[in-house]
Write a structure and sequence with these properties.
By secondary structure, the chain is mainly α. The protein is built from three helices and no strands. The chain has one domain: Non-ribosomal Peptide Synthetase Peptidyl Carrier Protein, Chain A (Orthogonal Bundle). The longest helix is centred in the first third of the chain and has 16 residues.
Amino acid sequence: MAHTTEDVLAGLAEIVNEETGVPTENVTLEKSFTDDLDIDSISLMTIVVNAEEKFDVKIPDEEVPNLKTVKDAVDFIVGASK
């Protein structure tokens, strides 16, 4: 099932909030996971695993370093879900 950018952003914001306590309204496309949202690599891996389950996609480990911003992750998930 294909996901829209809006669906993925909302779902990702919920996952980030559950893992880190960052308010969902702070999780926007232009935010960097590490610089803006202060998410460490361990938390990011948990977010990736939860996103894989939520959106039924596979995010290869070698792809994770490329997911620097929320938009990077949203675009990857939208593309992988088609």
